[in-house]
Amino acid sequence: xxxxxxxxxxxxxxxxxxxxxxxxxxxxxxxxxxxxxxxxxxxxxxxxxxxxxxxxxxxxxxxxxxxxxxxxxxxxxxxxxxxxxxxxxxxxxxxxxxxxxxxxxxxxxxxxxxxxx
Length: 117
Hints:
Blueprint: H1 5-32, H2 37-55, H3 61-81, H4 90-114
Helix pairs in contact: 1-2, 1-4, 3-4
């Protein structure tokens, strides 16, 4: 059976879905335990891994860019907050909300690809 573009996209989308799940868990932990540099490095490696998958899935490019911006804003907000970020900080809360929405949008796009849409 020949490998079609759609089949290859679904395979990559499946890998992306697993990477998104790991990223979601690790990034939530990163926010809770900010300045754990080993965890920060793992989260960064996860973003790099997802970048490769998304580069092969052009239909996700808008969601990917939205996610990258939200991720960068979240990390910047964490750095600005210092070693003990307060979840009651309005700037951090706004960044967490945007990040959650962007991650959800990327997941939805990935799910559409997995369904063949």
